[in-house]
Structures are given as C-alpha cells and as structure tokens.
Amino acid sequence: MIQFSHTYETDIIVAGSGLAGLRATKDASASGKRVMLLSKGKLCSGSSFYPLTGGLRAQLPQCEEDKEVYLKELIESGAGVAGKEHCKILVDSITEEITRLPQIGIYPKSAYGRAACFASSERRLEGWSGWDTIRDNVRSIFDTINNLEVVEYCEIARIIVNNNQIVGVIAINRSEELIFISAKAVILATGGMSALYQHNLTTDDVCGIGHSLALDTGVPVVNLEFIQFIPGITSPVYKLIFGEIILRYVDTIKDEYGVEVLKEAFGDEKAYNTCLQERAMHGPFTCGDSSQYFDILMMKQFIKNPTSKGFALTCTKDLLEDTNPLVKEIPDLYKKHGIDLAKDSITLLPFAHCNNGGVSINSDSSTVVEGLFAAGEVAGGVHGADRHGGGATAAALVFGAISASSAINYCDGTIRTEYDITQIKKDFTRFIDADECSPLDASLVFDQLKKELFLCANVYRNKDSIEKSLNWIRITREQFSPLSALEQQRESKIAMKVFHALRTSEALLLSLLERKESRGPHYRSDYPEKDDRLEGKRVFVTERDGAFIPTLM
Known about the structure:
5-stranded parallel sheet, single chain, 21 strands, alpha/beta, about 550 residues, 15 helices, 5-stranded mixed sheet, about 20% strand
C-alpha cells in the first residue's frame, strides 16, 4: 500500500533548478509567496550546468532597430513552426533579463566573433561559466530568503489536478519516500529529454519527466520532433562538447576503417569543402543546407556498426593561429582536458543536445490547466524547427521570469483547492500500476530505451525503425510498473524515472511519425524533402484515457 511519509503546504512549487527554475524561484519568492524549489539533484542542475562545456551564452539584439531584424531571423530559422508572439517577447525582454542575472549570482561577459548558430547577423553574446562558483552564489542568495524552501534530490512523481486546477504534487524525497505537497501553482522547469539518448550532451536528470507529468494532467506537448543534435566527442574525452567552428581547419575525416568516407561520398572536392564550411557555421544538425550530409553519413555509419566511435577528425596546425576569440576558446578548452587539436584525433557522433519543443505554453507561460506553468527547455511553443544559438538560454531566462509573474498573479486570485489524501493515493496507484507486471529491471529498461532512441530518433529517421522502437516501448510499458518500488521505498526514483521516460518517448516517436517531411533537425529518409503544404503546421500530442493522440494542425 502506498503511503506518504509527510504532507506539506506551500503556494508555488518550482520543479527544476536550471536557469528557468532559478529565475522563477527568485522572482516568485520576492513576491512574499511561500515557494518550494524541488531540484532533482543538487541545487543548480540540468543542461544549464552541464560540466563538459565552455559556458552558456544568450544572444541579444544590438539596438532597438535590430529587434525587428532579430525577430525576423528567429521566425525564418523556425521554418514556419516557431511561436511568433513568444519570439517577440523573447527579443523584447532578453536584454533586461541579462541585466538581472546578478540577482541569481551570475555575472555575464560580452563576446563577439561570429553570428550565432542560424543567425544571419552577428550580435552581442552574453556568456558565463564557472558552475561551482555560480552554485555557491545561488545557495548564498537563496539561504537569505525566509519564505523559500529548497529541497534537493527531490523529484515529482505526479501532478495532482482536480477540475482542471492544480491541487499539488506527489514527490519522492532524498530518502526515496513519497511525500505530498499542497500548492496553488506549479512551475515546470524540469528541462528537456536529451538524457533519453544513449549519447547526449546533458546531465542524467534531463530525461523528459516534465513532459509525461504535463501530458497526464491534460496539457499537450508540441514540436517534440525538433530535437537538436550536435557532434559530441566519444574519445579521448567522452561527452566533451564539440566546437563546430574548428571544422574550418579540418585535415582529415575518417571512419573506423580509416576511409575518408565523407570525401568519397561527395566525390567532388568543392562540394566536400562547402559541406564542411556550412557545417562550421552552426552546432546543431539541420537538413536545411548541404551540411546535413556530415551528420547523416556519420549516423548511417553508426547504424551499420553500433560499436563504432564515429568519425575520426584531425585538424591542421593553422587552427592554433586563429585569433578569433570564439575559435581560440575551443583548443584552449580541449587543452584543459589533455587534448592537443594540432596533434590529436577526436572521434564524433551526433549527440542529443537540446529540445526545441515541449509542453505547450501560452505567451504568459500558462498551460490549459489552471495553475500549471512551464518555462525553459521543458516548454514548447517558443522555438521552431531550427533555433538560434543562445536561444534556449534566452528563453529560459525570459519565460522563467514570466512564469513566476503569472504564477504570482494566479495565486492572488485563487483559493487553495481542497483535497482528499485517501483518494489521491488511490488515483496514483491506478496511474502507475500495470495489468500484468513482470520483474523488469528499471536500469536495464532505461539503458535499452536510450539505445532504441539513439538509433531510430537521431538525425536519420524512417518509418520502419521508428515503428519498431515504438512497438518495443508499448510492450515494455504494459509490463513495467514502479508500484513495488514505491511501496518498498527502494529504488523509487529510478522506477518512476523509467515510468515517465517510456511515456515521454512514446509521445516523441508519435510526433516523428506524424511529421511526414524533413524540416530543420527532423530528417526522414523516407520523406527527405520539406513539404510546403505543412508550413505552419505543428504536431501536438495529447493524452486521452491513457492513450497518446498525435495531431498535425
């Protein structure tokens, strides 16, 4: 029988302690409302604090006149599926939000050197790094806020809704115990789903839990098919981020057999060089230019041999002579990890990096459920197919602030919803149980899921491979239940993580199947061209009676 070890009460719950969660927490607590920040790991976690990167950046408009140009570029790179109103808010608000970063212990510095990924114009980039220092700063600031409680190593298992209104959440605390928290509002800032992939450039907690939680409440997800993949290093330092700008200085690119497979595929030196030069202009994969062949061929090689470490790349010594600060920082970063790019070879595969879609939000970060808001990478509706470099960071800050403001206003006009704790336990048990439970090991299921998604939902996709993995997910969902783990309070978190990961992965694969074209980072080998009839059409997935329904509209 499921039991709650403790019951708590607050006004606003913020789930996630990346940039969006930190911004939302600081602003919500400044209103005087009681706030609980639930962090899946230690304070300051998720993609915002991924350790093997040089830092984060946000792109700012150069001046008032540039805002219109910037907005136009965002819409164009979004390839018809970006939220125009959301993007306008981002452009209008990001400069002010950068000035407020010191409130949460972050002190950005300006940088120039090239246009951001998918941007046509070079703009000021505000960047920062030093995650341990920032974490210490945040902790010191949050410790002074009396109406804020930070709960580390605590994960939401289910959001409780009654009559389409937030009641609270069921969570799992550090001791693997179930707790119930009554709240007027919940802000989801749980991050994306890149950790659902075998190879990814994020922390292990970014695994799509927020998407599953939202779907369960009746909130749709949107644009899930637009996941950004960037080359990641498999050796000599696994999961070190790759600086695509160094492709300007490529010497050789070979497969695991020593064959210059990309050059052979082109058979033309000029086309080969054009591919590399275009690939050097943006980190994420896109099928919008000839650079696509770099990633597609790399992935096709891996599908043939899943034990491969990917393409082996060497650079010329000219790389070290480039004084461009955005070029120079790459060999400097690698040197810290013992890699000399003028001598050493690095191997690459397409790693899952960032989600451009997520929980469907309005321009005020609200959802169709009263009292439920979302911000950061978990939120969908801002970005389109391709997303500017620094856009995810900017959106996290802007909509993190907006979500707090909206949650405050909602709480001011809302009476706390009454609840029956006995009924909540019964409903939760029905939600997580399975008709026929088999003794599946949660960790093994999760490992297999990551392999399935990496092979079928990477930069190279087609109907047959997607449906094969979708069938495996559905069978596994029928067999897997976290009920026993929750009752015994042992390995509860990994059990619920897998439960939600399977749900989110099914919604993802349905989105991939529904979009029968190639657009931005969504490449279908069976539909390799963009379909102009789908311009402006988005894939929404909703949950009805336990089934996920994809709709293109």
